[in-house]
């Protein structure tokens, strides 16, 4: 099981210099990450 799926993006945003994430496997909830102010990209998807 991928435990990183359960990371709270809002909480994590305060711990990084730039809120950017590349979801190479497409397993994260894009709405959660975008809603927390992250730049979210998934290769191969618009």
What's the helix and strand layout?
Layout: H1 9-13, E1 20-22, H2 30-35, E2 39-41
Q: How would you describe the overall organization of this protein?
A:
Helices cover 24% and strands 13% of the residues. The N and C termini lie far apart (26 Å). With 46 residues, the protein is of the alpha+beta class. The model has no long low-confidence stretch (mean pLDDT 90). A two-stranded parallel ribbon has the order 1-2. Strand 1 (20-22), helix 2 (30-35) and strand 2 form a beta-alpha-beta unit. The chain is globular.
Q: Which sequence of strands runs across the widest sheet?
A: 1-2
pLDDT averaged residue by residue: 90
Poorly predicted parts: none
Strand percentage lies at 5-15%
Helices and strands, in order, run as HEHE
Give the beta-strand count: 2
**Global Rg:** 10 Å
Number of H- or I-type helical stretches: 2
Distance between the termini: 26 Å
Which geometry do the CA atoms define?
Answer: globular
For the biggest sheet, the summary is: 2 strands, parallel
| Assembly state | single chain
- The proportion of residues forming helix, as a percent range, comes to 10-25%
Summing up helix and strand content along with how strands pair, one would put the structural category as alpha+beta
